Hints:
The structure is a homodimer.
Chain A: E1 14-18, H1 25-36, E2 42-43, E3 46-47, E4 49-52, H2 55-59, H3 75-79, H4 88-100, E5 111-117, E6 123-129, H5 133-145, E7 151-156, E8 172-179, H6 188-209, E9 217-228, E10 240-242, E11 259-263, E12 268-270, E13 278-280, E14 294-304
Parallel strand pairs in A: 1-4, 1-5, 5-8, 6-7, 7-9
Antiparallel strand pairs in A: 2-3, 6-8, 9-14, 10-11, 11-12, 13-14
Helix pairs in contact in A: 1-6, 5-6
Amino acid sequence: MCSLPVPQEPLRRVAVTGGTHGNEMSGxxxxxxxxxxxxxxxxxSFSAVPVLANPAATAVCRRYIGRDLNRTFTSTFLxxxxxxxxxxxxxxxxxxxxxxxxxxxxxxxxxxxxxxxTTANMGTCFILNVTDTFAMHLxxxxxxxxxxxxxxxxxxxxxxxxxxxxxxVAKHGMTVELGPQPQGVLRADLxxxxxxxxxxxxxxxxxxNQGAAFPAFEMEVYKFLGCMDFPRSEDGDLAxxxxxxxxxxxxxxxxxxxxxxxxxxxEDMLYEGDSTMYxxxxxxxxxxxxxxxxxxxxxxxxxxxxxxxxxxxxxxLT
Amino acid sequence: MCSLPVPQEPLRRVAVTGGTHGNEMSGxxxxxxxxxxxxxxxxxSFSAVPVLANPAATAVCRRYIGRDLNRTFTSTFLxxxxxxxxxxxxxxxxxxxxxxxxxxxxxxxxxxxxxxxTTANMGTCFILNVTDTFAMHLxxxxxxxxxxxxxxxxxxxxxxxxxxxxxxVAKHGMTVELGPQPQGVLRADLxxxxxxxxxxxxxxxxxxNQGAAFPAFEMEVYKFLGCMDFPRSEDGDLAxxxxxxxxxxxxxxxxxxxxxxxxxxxEDMLYEGDSTMYxxxxxxxxxxxxxxxxxxxxxxxxxxxxxxxxxxxxxxLT
Lengths: 318, 318
């Protein structure tokens, strides 16, 4: 896998998307606010565009109408011929690709920040492609700006062909996950935290655009390894639950032999891996249908090279 | 309002309903377990029947398909003529009334326990009609059996004509609410707590059936006063959120002048009542569509008379 090229020019075309999942309320209501008061997304060198990504799902407060929009930005969906009976989210992914892309083209937006909530006890989590050096610098900046509560970085390794999320349409991008928040609920504490994070993201882009130096650094990240399904009966039904000792312990190490599920029969199921694992998105409501009880990750330290310093644009004379 | 008559005979016909709301998972999975292993609901003098109340909504993990089933057990719905195009839950309410009622008849079940979850920080809460002396004794027993964490009692004053919930179909009944749990999530801790509570409910009925004495007592209860909507803009959209100082503070006193909402504009909205109020179901996900940000209650002490002691049935000779 090769790294994404780092920006050589200021980032002018930036979007902040919310409501990609229509029942994740922080992003839904922040985008609605920004559509009324766009000044909050303005900086001297650019203005970010607020986008309600899945308005139909948002209107009925569901994750999606036909299929998960945030799994629909693959080349296959984006380049297939439109048909009259296709699912709503396939049509909507093409619209967003038209608005913010096309994906993998020089016309695509410079940066998309996609706002999410999770019912899991994930705190603040940034999800991005480890090859996106620009976004890795952004995470580092956000961690320094907002150290309490801690924010963690989940990195995915995916080629351009296999990425499927909204933010993959832009040249650079990132997902923010805040939790725990039930679906369909708007908590003031998470709303404020997300608003503050978005302001910091825009501040970082502004600093980069103005020619600030961002030297190389090392960073602790969680690398996605795969998913773990619930225990199931022969007919596919749940046979047990996330173990009470695992519930809410996102990002905490799980050793081989630790209990991870409690069967309805009363027995414990133990983790059978051969090394320490860091669980993420534990017991996320939306993942039951995806056969995911939690995601597995490993913790590692990555070295990120410096960002090239842009020559600042002269302030226009007035 | 007159009191419900207390039982003069052992309670033989008892039902435990779960999945009345299809995305409240503790009751859904407990009922599924009991349908496989009914022995857990057996006691010497009776066997409780497990009922999955809204199987269609449960199958798609939504609160309801057409309308809220737990608001559909009024005389109007139950006695109106069936039509081919009526909403699923109206048909299902009639089916359940046929199975467990008819409501307000001598053929109705003796007791229905209806199992619910809430996204609000309600802990363990029993909801019942204050005139149901038998159910009030049951709550008192449950509080003594399960003192940690504390369980609270929410009483509603409603006449037989205006009750609308599943448990109102039986001669006596009660709703159990456990929270916080997001919709669509099964937490092992709440699952275990609910299973233990149901066992205690059945134990209480067994004790009553066997002729145990339940003397008069006094009890602290929260009496339902009404609902408070979110602040809204002229077009009906949310204009703010539950205030961070109110979030998760269910059952804690709110004084006049205390902040209850935080507007998106940044302003606080204060409580304008003229006396101490106890908020319940704060920021419950399912109540956004009902225009309820929280319920208001007052705390008071009620005196409950003794239950008449039944003459124990002789153990049948074998």
